[in-house]
Amino acid sequence: MIRRALHSYRAGMIDEPIDPDDRPEWLVEQGRVDEAITILEARAGGGDWLDVERLTDLLMEDGRVEEAEAHWRAAIEAGLPRAYGGLANMLADAGRTDEAIAGWRAAVEAGEPEARVRLAALLAKAGRMDEAIGEYQMAIAAGDAAAGVRLAKVYARAGQLDEAVRAYRSAIGGEAVVSPRRRSAVREPPRELSSRLQGQHPGGATPSRDAGTTCGGALLNSGGCRGRSS
Predict the structure, then answer these.
(1) Are 102 and 76 in contact (CB under 8 A)?
(2) What is the 3-state secondary structure (H, E, C) of the chain?
(3) What is the rounded distance in angstroms from the CA atom of residue 167 to the CA atom of residue 174?
């Protein structure tokens, strides 16, 4: 009888995760959302913004927007890194665009990583192109060369193709200061500029994504490109 009870117990627990970090997701899958939220609320005070993000994402999915906002504002009061950006993301997801823009401006003031380009992207999405261009330009001036590609896209969407080409040209020239993780974003020409770039290259081909920085720079500066030998 004891063996049968033990077998039943193990059968009921076989799918429960061993790693405590996976337990909230497992609880959600079981429909035990409140239990998952309780666990994440206890973790959220530990000083890791990722725990707050997991908690607020779950609250948002459960329609508890005010609670999610309260947790991000508490994280800001506690001085948690990236908390301003977390709040801004949550507000944007809730459709509160103007408040989200204000949130990203606060994140910029707080010096949060990539806050300015996130602000610029949201401004562009809201159709506030002049403001978006200004923020991208400040990001570039602060050393974010990859922001030049995003700026080129905004210019292209606004029909300012000459400015778009110049912005992309600058981004290619600044590739050396871009982290390896983001370098492919600099090498990849904006889709909106494909026809313009094709017109500057013999045979109408765009530069290969695998071509080096010199090749990309040559294309944009002189109209020629020597690809790497295979």
Answers:
(1) no
(2) CHHHHHHHHHHHHCCCCCCHHHHHHHHHHCCCHHHHHHHHHHHHCCCCHHHHHHHHHHHHHCCCHHHHHHHHHHHHHCCCCCHHHHHHHHHHHCCCHHHHHHHHHHHHHCCCCCHHHHHHHHHHHCCCHHHHHHHHHHHHHCCCCCHHHHHHHHHHHCCCHHHHHHHHHHHHHCHHHCCHHHHHHHHCCCHHHHHHHHCCCHHHCCCCCCCCHHHHHHHHHHCCCCCCCC
(3) 11
54-91 confidence digits (pLDDT tens)? 999 999 999 999 999 999 999 999 999 999 999 999 99
d(CA 141, CA 151): 12
User: Which token pair is 40?
Assistant: 């994440």
Residue type, 99: E
- Give the distance between the most distant pair of CA atoms in the chain: 85
Question: Angle, nearest 10°, between helix axes 83-93 and 115-125?
Answer: 20
| Spatial contact of 114 and 125, defined as CB atoms under 8 Å apart | no
Whole-prediction pTM value?
0.70
Q: Which residues contact 87 (CB under 8 A, 6 or more apart)?
A: 69, 72, 73, 75, 76, 103
pLDDT tens per residue across span 208-218: 434 333 333 33
